[in-house]
Design brief:
With 142 residues, the protein is mainly β. The protein has one domain: Virus Head Decoration Protein, Chain: A, CATH 2.40.300. Helices cover 0% and strands 42% of the residues. It contains no helices and eleven strands. It has strands spanning 5-13, 25-28, 34-36, 45-47, 56-68, 78-81, 87-89, 94-95, 106-107, 110-115, 126-136. The strands form two sheets. Strands 1, 2, 3, 4, 5, 6, 7, 10 and 11 form a nine-stranded antiparallel beta sheet that branches. It has a two-stranded antiparallel sheet with strand order 8-9. The protein is globular and about 35 Å long. The termini are far apart. 37% of the residues are buried.
């Protein structure tokens, strides 16, 4: 059973109806409000309550939080948000060298945490995640 420990939470105003998004990843929009995070986006944290638009949203930004899995996530895997804000195994970053620019874009996931659940997850299972805000994962360790 997934649990939570030593949560560090902040409160922001919900910029949309998030009443069906408890235990999914959220991000902060340009107005400073909390909205659902999409696939691989830089997430602020995990939503802990069920606010509607304009209500206070409680967001876990540190500690061990519950997070709904979007599919199979292995134990100890680095995790990121999928298109629905659910946990997925993070994608290692690569550089898009087809652009040919001096600063080719980095493609991959924003790693929000590490799965602490002891067994592989299944879709919509609530898992335990240590929130680390690691950011980009290197494609090749160097």
């Amino acid at each position: 059973m997934a649990g939570e420990a030593n949560l560090v939470c902040i409160t922001r105003i919900a910029g949309a109806d998030l009443s069906a998004k408890q235990y999914t990843a959220v991000k902060q929009n340009s107005s400073g409000q909390v909205v659902a995070a999409g696939a691989g986006e830089k997430a602020l944290g995990i939503l802990q309550n069920k606010p509607t638009s304009g209500q206070a949203a409680t967001v876990a930004v540190g500690g061990v939080s519950k997070w709904i899995a979007g599919g199979v996530v292995a134990p100890d895997a680095e995790v990121a948000a999928d298109a629905d804000g659910k946990a997925k195994t993070a994608v290692a970053n690569t550089t898009d060298t087809q652009v040919g620019a001096a600063a080719d874009p980095l493609l991959g996931s924003y790693i929000l945490g590490r799965n602490l659940t002891a067994a592989n997850s299944v879709q919509n299972q609530v898992i335990e995640v240590l929130l680390t805000h690691t950011g980009a994962s290197p494609g090749t360790v160097s």
